[in-house]
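Record type: monomer structure entry
Structure origin: computed from sequence
Chain ID: A
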Amino acid sequence: MLDERTMVQRLRTKALLFTVLAGLGLSQVNCGIILHPERGDRHGTRLDVVAVVFDCLWLLVGVVPGVVALIVDAVTGGMWAGNHHFHPGEALGFNLRGPAPATADVSIQLSSPDGTVRTLASRHVEKGEEVDAAPVHLPEQMPPGTYALSISVNGHENARFPLHVE
């Protein structure tokens, strides 16, 4: 029969092993990709401070999980908020899932460096209508440059993003 001290020691060892394995397993789920799934394979010049801080929090669990989280986010592009270069004809994805909160006319527009505005997509949605993610394709004939992609709801611009075309 095992004495009480040996049983406590074995329980501590199992708890420590479980904690280390759970930390290593969870560190494979990198914070940058969870926070911004659209950043896969993106490598820019500007770090996303929030993603880096969350990755560094893994250092509290242990050095190995923290370093693994930082490496995975750096390699997959999850920690980069910087520039992503697009190509003419490339599909852009938007996460517009779930029921629409209100009836609205939504449009996605592309503004070229010379000021020309082109509507890439436009759609009317009813309140409660399920909205699926649909790819929007850039025009096939686009000269290289920095464009602006804007999303408008009911004629009012709600978001504007720089778009670098090679």
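Annotation 1: The chain has a mean pLDDT of 77.
Annotation 2: Helices lie at 4-27, 31-35, 49-61, 63-76.
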